[in-house]
Design a protein that fits this description.
With 239 residues, the chain is α+β, with helices and mostly antiparallel strands. 44% of the residues lie in helices and 22% in strands. The strands form two sheets. It has a four-stranded antiparallel beta sheet with strand order 3-1-2-8. Helix 2 runs parallel beside helix 4 and helix 5 runs antiparallel to helix 8. The two termini are 15 Å apart.
């Protein structure tokens, strides 16, 4: 799974380069999750997970508090959670997750981002079956054996554990996210380089330089859309 981690790392680095965009996306997601349940992470596990992700992206506390207060205030602003699936060059596959208050606008913008950059939208289910929902944690300052011991003591299952570039990466089933988080917390680990629920491709494809540049332009266009929260794909961009 090493190259998959590189894709996650590259995606995070790209988003970190545009802090205003990522902060706005997190503000919307925090509001939606807080409004769906209790606006308190101690009683709302989904909110707790989003806040953990926000922490790894250094989202300012003021933005988090503003979104939670907005949810507490009974705002009637509502969003639909949507997933689009599509294709890029040479068998590349893309999943786009969005939060929108205007479904028609978002569908049109996503379709245009695909079409203008050599891709096309597919029907629901045409791509997602080639990806696995996965919880991913990245931890610095520990060895692979130390992390394995922590998980064994906590009786938490992981799909895979590997060490890359002084970071231990833990892959697990999505329903193990909170169990992993608690296991690490009990072991004194509270800082993560990544703590996410993501969609990992079962296989990856490599593109030529020309098609890779076109594909990256398409991904950038999708991620730049205001309503798009996450973009997943199966292209190896680590080289």
């Amino acid at each position: 799974m090493g190259r998959k981690w590189n894709n996650i790392k590259d995606k995070k680095a790209a988003k970190d380069a545009n802090t205003s965009r990522i902060y706005a996306k997190f503000g919307r997601e925090i509001y939606v999750v807080a409004r769906q349940g209790e606006p308190d992470p101690d009683s709302n596990q989904a909110l707790k997970m989003v806040l953990e992700r926000a922490k790894t992206y250094n989202v300012p506390r003021a933005i988090i508090d503003r979104a939670i207060e907005k949810a507490k205030g009974g705002s009637d602003e509502s969003y639909d959670e949507l997933r689009y699936e599509g294709f890029g060059p040479n068998g590349s596959m893309v999943i786009v997750d969005a939060l929108t208050n205007n479904v028609n606008r978002t569908a049109s913008e996503v379709r245009a981002a695909f079409g203008k950059n050599g891709g096309n939208m597919g029907v629901s289910g045409s791509v997602a079956y080639m990806f696995d929902a996965t919880a991913v944690f990245g931890i610095e300052g520990k060895t692979e054996d130390e992390i394995l011991e922590i998980l064994m003591e906590a009786d938490v299952d992981a799909r895979d554990i590997l060490e890359e570039e002084d970071i231990v990466i833990v892959y697990a089933a999505p329903d193990q996210f909170h169990a992993l988080q608690e296991a690490f917390k009990n072991a004194g680990i509270t800082e993560f380089t990544v703590a996410e629920l993501t969609m990992l491709p079962q296989t990856e494809v490599t593109l030529t330089d020309d098609t890779k540049a076109q594909f990256e332009k398409m991904i950038d266009a999708l991620e730049d859309l205001e309503d798009v929260q996450q973009v997943y794909h199966n292209v190896d961009l680590s080289e």
